[in-house]
Amino acid sequence: MEDDLFEMPSEVDIRRFKIGGEIPVILVDGIFKNPDQIREYALRLPYSQPPYPYPGRLAAIPEPNRSLVDLKRKILGLVNSQYLSQLQIARDGQRLLAFRKLHTDFGVIDVHPDELSSEQRIPHTDPVPVFGLIYLNREERGGTLFFKQKQPVSHEERGGGYLTTSNPAFELLGRIDPAYNRLAIYPGFVPHSGEIAGDWIRGPDRFSNPRLTQRLVFLP
Question: 13-211 domain in CATH 2.60.120?
């Protein structure tokens, strides 16, 4: 791995907005100097299915280097200084004031809609309160959708492939647009899902040109 692979430019575009007027999100455009190199590197890594219902496969980053350490430090500082105050997160009965660790890996979505498990067919919440994604696709591969759960999910409402619209159990609140080389930071406890639609997920492109993201998990 090249020592400067994950290098950031000297200036990035940071924006804040609320999905549906209530879900705080931070977007950082142009997060990497050389996103094409990162995509090529990521797709050469070995991927495997995780032990939870992720609709694809994950790859660890094997050799942390200077630029990756620097990237994690800067993103962790951004979340602690400009994002965490927008959320009311408690840990051990006290408000969480800072995250101390940041784990990152790569994920690809490649499960055919007809092959999804019942859990993969509905929005999910993450086991951590704050999550981040870096979108690494020049082609349209979908953003991230956020939902409000209105009622318990019936067996019938788990059918039909990836959920991309409202249904009786979930109301679609809004989306994050998947601009290439964009970092999105959002609350993991709000029901959400990948915006997976189009011919690519039903054909060979789901393997040869999959939806690729770099995932960021913030830990106390």
Answer: yes
- What's the predicted TM-score (pTM) here? 0.95
Angular region, 174: left φ>0, alpha ψ -120 to 50, beta rest: left
Question: Side by side, which strands form the sheet with 144-149?
Answer: 170-176, 144-149, 192-194
Would you say 188 and 131 are in contact if contact means Cβ atoms under 8 Å apart?
A: yes
Mean pLDDT of the chain: 94
Q: What is the pLDDT of residues 183-213, one digit of tens each?
A: 999 999 999 999 999 999 999 999 999 999 9
CA–CA distance, 148 with 150 (Å, rounded to integer): 6
- What lies within 8 Å, CB to CB, of 214 at 6+ separation is 38, 42, 104, 105, 106, 107, 133, 134, 136
Q: Which two tokens stand for residue 27?
A: 């977007």
